[in-house]
From TrEMBL:
It is a multi-pass membrane protein. Belongs to the LIMR family. LMBRD1 subfamily. It is found in: Lysosome membrane. Keywords: Cobalamin, Cobalt, Lysosome, Membrane, Transmembrane, Transmembrane helix, Transport. It holds the Pfam family LMBR1. The chain crosses the membrane at residues 36-60, 72-98, 124-148, 169-189, 218-240, 332-354, 393-415, 436-458, 525-552. GO terms for molecular function: cobalamin binding. It comes from Owenia fusiformis. GO terms for cellular component: lysosomal membrane. The keyword Transmembrane applies. One of its GO terms (biological process) is protein localization to vacuole. This is Lysosomal cobalamin transporter. It comes from the Eukaryota.
Length: 578
C-alpha cells in the first residue's frame, strides 16, 4: 500500500517539481513588486533562521559531549521549525495584496489563473515544509538519536554497526508513519453516498476518494496527529513560559553577594551536622548504616554548595554583574511588554472560545467560526495596524516569534520529562546531544500547534488578512425632481468573512492557505477541530496556573542553570580532559 501511495503521488510529493515551480513563481513576481517583496523577505528570513539556529544550538550544546551528526541535524531541524512559522505572515500578506483597500481586486488579481497560481505556490510551500517536518520527526531525528546512543567510549563500535542499530530502531518510527498515512488515506472521513451498498463498493469509494484528493487527506491526517501532540506540549511548556517569562523579568535575579553569604551560612550549618554525626562515633564504635548514608548525602550537598559558592564569587567580581544593574530598567520594561502581550493573547483566545461556544457551527464542524461576533483585541489591533504598512505583518510575525520563544523558555525552565522522570535539562554549554535532538523534535510538534494557536487567537486576520469586499445594501433615497422615494443599491466596504462568498455566490474573499487547510480538514474529520477547541481551554487554564506559580516562587538565582546536582559527572570529564 505504501509503494502504491508513493507511486500515485510521485509528481506531488517526491519530485523537484514543487521546488522548480516555487522558484519559477518567484522569478515571475517582479511584475508585481509587492509580491516579490513578500517572497524576498521570506527568503531573507529563512537565511537568518539558519544563522540563528546555528548560534542557538552552539550556545546550548555541551562543551565536550557533542558530535557533528547531532549538531547538524539539530540546526537543520530548528531552522525548519522557524521557516514553517515564517510562512504564515507571507501567506496573509499575499492574499491581502490581491485587493485594494476599497474591496476591489487589483487588475492582475482579476485573472483567476493568476490568483490560483499564487495560492498553489503557497499551498505547495506548506506541503513541502510539512513533509520536511514529517521526514525529520519520523526519520532523521530518531536515526541520529539512536546513532549517538550507540556510541561507547569503553568499547570500540564501528560506524557501520551504529548505523545498522540506529536503522533498526528507526524502522519503528517509519512503521508508525506508514500506519498514519494509510489510515489518513483510506479512513472513511465522509459517509459514502449509499450506506446500503456492498463492502466492495465501499472499498472502491475509499480508493476513489484517495485518488480524487491526490493523497492530501493522508498528509493532513498525519499533520493533524502531530499537531495534536504539539498542542499538549503547548499546554505544558508554552503556556507556562508565557506566564513565567514576564514575571521572572519583573522580579529579576537575586544579588550575587547576598546569595553567596546565604550559601556560606548553609554550608557552615551542613558541616556542623557532619561533625555532629562523626562525634557520636568518636569512641571507635562502628557507624550505623543510616548515619553513613546521611553523611554521604551531607557531603554531596557540601560539594554542591562549594561549587555554588565559587561560581557566585566569580559572578560577583565579573563585569556582567555590574552591567546587569545598569540594564535592570530595560529588563523591567521587557517584562512589562511581554506581560501585556500575554494578557492580550489570553483575552483574545478567551473571547474567541466564548464566541465559538455561542456562534460556531458546532462540534460536527470542528467548532468553526463563520463570523466574528465578540470583539477580539488582537484582530482589532491588526486591522488598525494595516493603515501603516507593514506594521500589521511585523506585529503578526512578532506574535508568532513570541509563541516560539515562550515555548523555548518553557522547555528550558521545566526540562524534558518522561512521566515522572526528568530525562534532559536544557542549559547553556551543558546540554547533551540527545537533549538537543529531543528539544528540536518537541519544537517541531509545537510549531505545527502554534499555527493552530495563531488561528484561534486571531481567526479573522489569519483567514483573510486585511481584505475587504463590496457588499450591496438596499437604501431608501428621495428623487429630488419628483420627491418620490425609491430603493437604490449601495456598495459598502466590509471586512471579509466566511459568509461573504456564500451570500454573493462568488469568491470575493480569498482565504489563506493555512486556514483553507484547517477548515477543509475540520469539515472532513471533526474530531481534530473539537480536540483543538478543548485544548485551547486547557492552554488558558495552564496560563493561569503558571502565572500563580511564577508569582509565589522566589527570584531565580544569579547563577541559574550553571550549577546543578547532576554536574558532578561532567565535572569529572572536564578534569580528565584537562
Amino acid at each position: 500500500v505504501t509503494i502504491v501511495f508513493l507511486y500515485e503521488n510521485k509528481t506531488k510529493y517526491l519530485k523537484i517539481y514543487f521546488t522548480l515551480r516555487f522558484y519559477f513563481t518567484i522569478l515571475r513576481m517582479p511584475v508585481h513588486a509587492g509580491l516579490a517583496v513578500g517572497w524576498i523577505l521570506f527568503g531573507v528570513i529563512s537565511a537568518l533562521t539558519l544563522v540563528f539556529s546555528f548560534l542557538y544550538i552552539r550556545y546550548y550544546q555541551h562543551k565536550y559531549d557533542k558530535e557533528l551528526s547531532s549538531t547538524v541535524t539539530s540546526i537543520l531541524a530548528l531552522s525548519i521549525c522557524l521557516v514553517t512559522s515564517a510562512l504564515g505572515p507571507v501567506d496573509i500578506f499575499l492574499v491581502s495584496y490581491m485587493k485594494y483597500s476599497n474591496g476591489t481586486f487589483k487588475e492582475w488579481a482579476n485573472i483567476t489563473e493568476e490568483r490560483k497560481s499564487i495560492e498553489d505556490t503557497v499551498l505547495y510551500a506548506y506541503y513541502a515544509l510539512y513533509i520536511c517536518v514529517m521526514v525529520f520527526v519520523f526519520l532523521f531525528l530518531p536515526l541520529v538519536y539512536f546513532f549517538y546512543e550507540e556510541k561507547d567510549d569503553d568499547v570500540q563500535v564501528s560506524t557501520k554497526q551504529r548505523c545498522c542499530t540506529a536503522m533498526k530502531y528507526t524502522a519503528g518510527f517509519l512503521f508508525m508513519a506508514t500506519i498514519l498515512l494509510v489510515v489518513g488515506a483510506f479512513a472513511p472521513v465522509k459517509i459514502p453516498p449509499n450506506t446500503n451498498q456492498t463492502e466492495w463498493r465501499k472499498i472502491e469509494y475509499m480508493f476513489k476518494e484517495f485518488a480524487s484528493n491526490n493523497g492530501e487527506d493522508a498528509l493532513s491526517f498525519v499533520i493533524s496527529c502531530l499537531t495534536l501532540i504539539g498542542l499538549l506540549l503547548l499546554i505544558i511548556y508554552t503556556a507556562y513560559g508565557m506566564s513565567a517569562w514576564p514575571i521572572d523579568l519583573l522580579k529579576g535575579t537575586q544579588s550575587a553577594s547576598s546569595e553567596r553569604m546565604r550559601v556560606i551560612d548553609e554550608r557552615t550549618t551542613n558541616r556542623t551536622k557532619i561533625e555532629a554525626i562523626r562525634n557520636k562515633y568518636s569512641n571507635g564504635r562502628p557507624m550505623r548504616q543510616r548515619d553513613r548514608i546521611k553523611i554521604a548525602e551531607l557531603e554531596e550537598t557540601d560539594r554542591l554548595m562549594s561549587r555554588q559558592e565559587a561560581q557566585l564569587e566569580s559572578r560577583e567580581l565579573s563585569c556582567l554583574s555590574k552591567c546587569s544593574i545598569l540594564l535592570r530598567p530595560v529588563e523591567i520594561l521587557a517584562g512589562i511588554v511581554f506581560f501585556l502581550i500575554a494578557l492580550v493573547v489570553f483575552v483574545s483566545l478567551l473571547l474567541t472560545n466564548i464566541d465559538k461556544v455561542m456562534h460556531s457551527l458546532g462540534w460536527r464542524m470542528g467548532y468553526a467560526l463563520p463570523k466574528r461576533t465578540l470583539p477580539n483585541p488582537v484582530d482589532i489591533m491588526l486591522v488598525y495596524a494595516q493603515m501603516i504598512f507593514p506594521l500589521d505583518y511585523i506585529i503578526m510575525s512578532g506574535i508568532i516569534l513570541y509563541f516560539f520563544f515562550c515555548s523555548v523558555m518553557g522547555i528550558r525552565k521545566i526540562g524534558i520529562w518522561f512521566c515522572w522522570l526528568r530525562m534532559f535539562k536544557i542549559r547553556p554549554r551543558k546540554t547533551r546531544p540527545q537533549g538537543l535532538l529531543f528539544m528540536c523534535m518537541m519544537l517541531m510538534f509545537m510549531v505545527l500547534a502554534i499555527n493552530i494557536l495563531t488561528y484561534m487567537v486571531m481567526p479573522q486576520y489569519t483567514t483573510y488578512g486585511g481584505q475587504h469586499y463590496l457588499q450591496p445594501e438596499n437604501r431608501t433615497a428621495i428623487d429630488p425632481a419628483t420627491n418620490h422615494t425609491y430603493i437604490k443599491i449601495v456598495l459598502t466596504t466590509q471586512p471579509c468573512n466566511t459568509h461573504a462568498n456564500t451570500q454573493l455566490n462568488t469568491d470575493v474573499c480569498i482565504m489563506t492557505r493555512m486556514s483553507f487547510l484547517l477548515t477543509r480538514f475540520f469539515y472532513k474529520v471533526w474530531f481534530f477541530g473539537a480536540a483543538y477547541f478543548f485544548a485551547s481551554w486547557g492552554f488558558l487554564g495552564m496560563c493561569l496556573i503558571g502565572f500563580i506559580v511564577a508569582l509565589i516562587r522566589r527570584r531565580k538565582s544569579a547563577i541559574d542553570g550553571e550549577v546543578d546536582e547532576d554536574d558532578f559527572d561532567s565535572v569529572d570529564d572536564e578534569l580528565i580532559r584537562a
